[in-house]
Amino acid sequence: xxxxxxxxxxxxxxxxxxxxxxxxxxxxxxxxxxxxxxxxxxxxxxxxxxxxxxxxxxxxxxxxxxxxxxxxxxxxxxxxxxxxxxxxxxxxxxxxxxxxxxxxxxxxxxxxxxxxxxxxxxxxxxxxxxxxxxxxxxxxxxxxxxxxxxxxxxxxxxxxxxxxxxxxxxxxxxxxxxxxxxxxxxxxxxxxxxxxxxxxxxxxxxxxxxxxxxxxxxxxxxxxxxxxxxxxxxxxxxxxxxxxxxxxxxxxxxxxxxxxxxxxxxxxxxxxxxxxxxxxxxxxxxxxxxxxxxxxxxxxxxxxxxxxxxxxxxxxxxxxxxxxxxxxxxxxxxxxxxxxxxxxxxxxxxxxxxxxxxxxxxxxxxxxxxxxxxxxxxxxxxxxxxxxxxxxxxxxxxxxxxxxxxxxxxxxxxxxxxxxxxxxxxxxxxxxxxxxxxxxxxxxx
Length: 445
Hints:
Radius of gyration: 22 Å
CATH superfamily of the largest domain: Glutamine synthetase/guanido kinase, catalytic domain
Number of helices: 14
Strand content: 15-25%
CATH topology of the largest domain: Creatine Kinase, Chain A, domain 2
Helix content: 25-40%
């Protein structure tokens, strides 16, 4: 065993850890957990913990059910909401087949594999997510009314606000788990919050997002409220996205920065943006994987509907933030389409793969969108050559089915299962009779 494993085993005794939760995600991004006693952890480091993979969405077929969870000691953290003594810890796991080979159904492995490909070309991929979500008074029951915890708006500071109290406790808990928070504030919708995590490598960020969702829900429940990352819970209020700032580094050098270039953007950055734009439609099924995701994307406001980029243009899908003098290391681009309910491992993998494809093939960056894309007419958008993102999950699935990039990035197993699941979701959704149909048609038909 290495130094990290030894550190974890010592920490179990020093911190009176009685339970160790091994975390991993299924293909759809739902967190899974198995708890083991500390005495079993040394064996888990050496051999992994066996479990029935057929019980997990997208992992295996019944005929090949046995799988192993290998805890990653670098992700060891205590769970603060479980109490200090005795305490409970968690580690993320890499999933393997019985012969020790990586499971190609493991979303974490999909991202690690994509990061390795970028690493072979000398690049490290960094991400910084701005995560939005809603807080409700109590758990919404199916079909019931949703009551936000407040009626505040964007950046509002309200005395004795449930939202600010919630954010303070959440941030304290995240910081205690080694997850650094950069900003937090009230968002535009009633009860809507935003917490931004600091820049980190994409694998750490994806792990942090999974932890973040759990912490947010735990804190909410402890305060008698309910948190949801649903992309568009209200028709009349903004949806919840996960605007994500991304950059490539070569060692300690930001590959997106070039002094004196337009917007200080290097050729690497321009090709990377071009790759994201060209493959945007086919990866949207992953970055926006739910039928509800498309209610946000067609709703206007801060959510993009058209495939374009712009300098400090918040209506564009890819935004190039204002350049800060003497801060070349912070050069980055912001992808505004990803929603907060995506599987972060698969979302980051597909975004990186699209950008790297643009870099490898030296895609030409199209003309930037200088206007508010939402305010343009259809004819003006057509003249500018602006294409629309998929309008619904069905359209996104069709593009994904034709995508070589997506099939290669996800791997055969994840690609097949993911699309099969999304087709089923669409079929179930389109057969539902909505409240809107009943409200508008029952009185007159």
